[in-house]
Amino acid sequence: MMLRHGGLSLCGVLVITTLFVPLGYASTSFMLEPIISKPRHSRLFKSALRQENLSKQQSDLWTPLVNQGWKPCIASTSTSSSVSDSSGYIQVFLDGGLNQQRMGICDAVAVAKILNATLVIPYLEVNPVWKDASYFEDIFDVDHFMNVLKDDISIVRELPDEYTWSTREYYASAIRSTRVKNAPLHASANWYREHVFPVLESYGIAAISPFSHRLAFNNMPADIQRLRCKVNFEALTFVSHVRNLGDLLVNRLRFPVVESDDAAGTEYLKQVVDKEGIKSAGRFVALHLRFDKDMAAHSACDFGGGKAEKKALARYRKAIWQGRVMNSRFTDEELRNQGRCPLTPEEIGLLLTALGFDNSTRLYLASHKVYGGEARISALRKLFPQIEDKKSLASAVERAQINGKASLSAAVDYYVSMHSNIFVSASPGNMHNAMVGHRTYLNLKTIRPNMALLGQLFMNKSMNWSDFQAAVVEGQRNRLGKIKIRKAKQSIYTYPVPDCVCQQD
Fold first, then answer.
1. Rounded Cα gap, residues 208 and 119, in angstroms
2. How confident is the model at residue 152 (pLDDT cuts 50, 70, 90)?
3. How far apart are CA 169 and CA 158, in angstroms?
4. CA 294 to CA 290: how far, in whole Å?
């Protein structure tokens, strides 16, 4: 039977749920939403509103990346095209949001390959923040996943009858020999051979939990690295209704419509056309505005909401993380100098304006609920009136299948962002990392904000627009899609070069 949430048997794993739910989530209703009445960087903001872009700067921004000498390269170097006899079944439990779980799925396939084991479709835990109980098959196309990887590893949707006892309840009730719960962060391939393979030999099944970030990026065989990228960039595709909604949103972004009235005074939508009356594809920027209250609180930065906001964020940190937040040890100035503060909607608007985007630019807002709501977004909207999101582009009926499902909503944002002309994120994080890696793999333009530079610039209240713009343009010169070679210990999912590409002849 497929393992499910809420007390039924699961196809995933084994953990005591309460051990993974941070204390205090049930009592966070005290969180205050700030009231932002005016821009924090008023001098720069007023200048930005008056900007008229040079066509040359605008043209350069939208120009696709040139060929950088690399091409996707994920084919195995092995001469065998068949999967060897399985050593047993591997179950994994994956926490976090959609993009953290995505990386865990890739690692789970790699571990199954390392151990020559059969992977049970991974189990996605309900995240205490996003509260989405979607399963793997609700988000990803299982048939495609299994078909793409059929020559690499053996995969099953559910355990055979002889192992149906391997459930959440079974592992929650006592210490079990088939559970591997001590996998270190970024464990080596040898660690899995030495500690997990004996469990498979003895019992025919091993349930690894926790599993997030439990496989190293260094000293891995080339075929394992390529397999991880094959999973990430080829095997993991979203279910059809997510892709269909994503295509609808992309189409409406590229071919915008405007409200009009017919002769009878009835409102309807009219397709926007160019001067020749020809419908032409438009361009848009996908902006991941990771500025929810969790991000704001965890950053420990000052966002201009005064003492009341600081106290509310401090109480939230204590409730969620029991005060164990490293950033809270530093001053706001120190955090900004180190690039640790997420950009506010106003600040990301100033960055985009300084780079040359004007108020005709269409922005797709890919984000969870923004801390501060519309009041916080208002400055960005004044700079870029053509801001769209899922709600503005699609009706409630069209969004019905993702309504109330944070992971499915994030999947739609991921899909639209991958189809944008340019992607930019207001702060580092799993979505930023996933986009940087996937778009690098396909040589698509991605803006990586220079967080330390921007933090310093925004602290300088006397800087004029001309100097600010010059500093931004110079600081972002090599951060507009130029490929970066992965360094030691860096994630292959953020930096797939050179592991997952080949140099072109």
1. 11
2. very high
3. 16
4. 10
Distances in Å between the Cα of 94 and the Cα atoms of 27, 97, 233 are 25, 9, 19
Contact assessment for residue 191 and residue 73, using Cβ atoms and an 8 Å cutoff: no
- The model's pLDDT over 415-461, given as tens digits with 9 standing for 90+, comes to 999 999 999 999 888 999 999 999 999 999 999 999 999 999 999 99
Tokens 């923040």, residue located: 129
Measured distance CA(379)–CA(54) in Å, rounded: 22
For 276, residues 6+ apart whose C-beta sits below 8 A from its C-beta are none
pLDDT in tens, 344-368: 999 999 999 999 999 999 999 998 7
pLDDT at position 81 is: 62
User: Residue 34: which of 337, 316, 452, 334 has the closest Cα?
Assistant: 316
- State whether the Cα torsion 441-443-444-449 is positive or negative: positive
**Residue indicated by tokens 């713009």:** 469
H-run or E-run covering 300: none
Neighbours of 398 (CB within 10 A): 14
Q: Which two tokens stand for residue 171?
A: 């592992």
- Contact between 230 and 79 (Cβ < 8 Å): no
